[in-house]
Model the fold of this input.
Amino acid sequence: MPEDDRRIYEGHMAKGGTALSVLVDSPSMADLDRIEGVLQQYNPVEIHEENSDRSVVGRGLPGSATGQTGYGAQEGEREKVIPLPQEELKVGKRATESVKHIRTYVVEEPVQKDVSLRDERTVVERRPATGAATGQPMEREYEVRELHEEPVVQKDVRAGEELVVRKEATERTERIADTVKKTKADIDKSGR
Done:
């Protein structure tokens, strides 16, 4: 450590100050922000800045009467720095998922179709013979066939409709409204 830095640290520690150094392996921005946030809660004094700009002297832990903890105010210095922290709104996004279920099922519905059918009917009538008799009387049997049509039902499967399932993505802008905290100060100018 350079001699000047060593003297500066010794001087602050002699006044009751504490030196803190934080070493982080492969820090992410989130780690650095979190570490800096914890340190800022205790109003740290940056010694190098303090010695280059004397107006920073006097920052200490909150709660002490002068804003200094164990530090004696140096000759002629009456300034005190009061931080006014404020929150900042950071809006990100995350993916959510919804599932659509498609179920197919079978229903029966009545249908009617007309079909034309043909029936034959045998008609037997008697009439007097018109010619001479041939052959001898004998027993015989004759067969006459009638044709009848009846409906036959057959079901064929054919393509009716199709469902086409696809996803379409759209972009939208959504306004986020929230509140953030900001520290303000009222200054009493009456001098009391």
